[in-house]
Amino acid sequence: MLSARYLHLHEALGLGPMWLKRGAVVLPSATLPGNPTQIRLQKQTVLSIPQRPSEQHTGQARLKTMKVLETTAVHTRKPVPETETPLSGVSDGIAPVPAASGITKLAVVSLCPPTEDMVYGQLFHGKAGVLLDNILKAVGLDAAYVHKTSWVKTAAVGNPMPSEQAIENALGQIARELDGCRAPAVLFLGQAFVQTERQTMVETLCGSRPFFIIDHPARLLRQPELKARNWQVLKQLKRALQAGGS
Length: 246
Hints:
- It is a single chain.
- This protein is 44% helix and 9% strand.
- It is an alpha/beta fold.
- It has a domain at 106-244: 3-Layer(aba) Sandwich (Uracil-DNA Glycosylase, subunit E), CATH 3.40.470.
- The protein has a four-stranded parallel beta sheet with strand order 4-3-5-6, with helices on both faces. A two-stranded parallel ribbon has the order 1-2.
- α8 (196-206) links the parallel β5 and β6.
- Mean pLDDT is 74; it is low at 36-59 and 65-91.
């Protein structure tokens, strides 16, 4: 036997319909016996009745959880080291990595930070950064003499390739940055710089500085067979650095 109070309470809590055995008997609250022992037995019987979760209730709970996740800030970015302070005139975004030695012998420029760099708040994060440093060693250059940066400092979420307008707008900024670090040569990362529509901008940016273009280290990690063609360009860079006294 089950008191009607439990049915009303179950419904008021939003738990959906209570599933009872076919032979269960519901008593009005006024007819409950006054014997405490009998009441305890009835409570035990109620607890033993199998109940099926309400699909409506679980669905509402799931929607509520999703709303909480959407509005909760997730702290996934690591703090940027103090040495990665943005240069004067550089807009918000991932800060460039200036030459640790204070002397810049080469500037390395990518088109924009990839998603991984945006997440960690660090330019050339992870394996791509390790490969880049190894490439620099291969041409006889320590990373401490390299200024690492990106042409466009930020990228739209879900679309790592910046728009042509964003690239054109950032031309003056990256030019001031390269002049400020006094880079005698520039190494561009990514075949986007080979495209015809960007050749004029690259030439305008570098002026009399020699510049070289290779695949981005992230692509070389995915396609190691491309390293051979890039090495031909790196040998030219090495000769230019040696001729410049680097």
